[in-house]
Amino acid sequence: MRWARLLKAAAEAEAAAGVLALGALADGIAAGQPRAALLTVRSASAYTEAAAAVLDAMEADGLSREEAAVCLHGLAAGYAQRDREQEVSLVWSGPSSHRVPVRSTDRALLGLIAEARTELILMTYSAQR
Predict the structure, then answer these.
(1) I want to staple 50 with a disulfide (CB 3.0 to 4.6 A). Which of 7, 13, 88, 128 is the partner?
(2) pLDDT value, residue 84
(3) Is residue 64 classed exposed, middle or buried when 0-12, 13-18 and 19+ CB atoms within 10 A define those classes?
């Protein structure tokens, strides 16, 4: 598959540096920025390594800048949508604590049940009354 290396590198870049960094890289590629500029968009080494892998994969797959930018923009949009669809909420099931602002397990469960639209999957290592 012609896009295989780029897709793999882009997925790893998103995991390492985040969706905003992937979008910024796509913008830079589309704008025709040179490799050195693309690698210094962000100062974090995780970004630099991820961006280098994406650029190497783009070349190895024989993709034009336009093709790679469109692919990366699409992936970034998909990852952003995924992030908007997920919500993580901390629930405390231990002894009462007023030091940390968390919801109790029973209130969290009631809220989840009330908001569920199609399916609700709950997992626990220990369920008690």
Answers:
(1) 13
(2) 86
(3) exposed
Name the residue type at position 71: C
CA separation for the pair 5, 20 (Å, rounded): 20
* Residues paired with 91 in a beta bridge: 103
Residues 41, 45, 50, 56: what is their CA dihedral angle, to the nearest 10 degrees? Answer: 80
pLDDT tens figures, 93-110: 666 667 767 667 777 888
Q: What sign has the CA pseudo-torsion 97, 99, 104, 105?
A: negative
For the stretch 21-48, pLDDT in tens is 999 999 999 999 999 999 986 667 788 9
Q: Which of 26, 3, 4, 6 is nearest to 80 (CA)?
A: 26
Provide the CA 84 distance to its chain's centre, in angstroms. Answer: 10
Please say whether the beta carbons of 29 and 72 come within 8 A. yes
Residue 5 has pLDDT above 80, yes or no: yes
Residue 38 CB partners (closer than 8 Å, separation 6+): 25, 28, 29, 51, 55
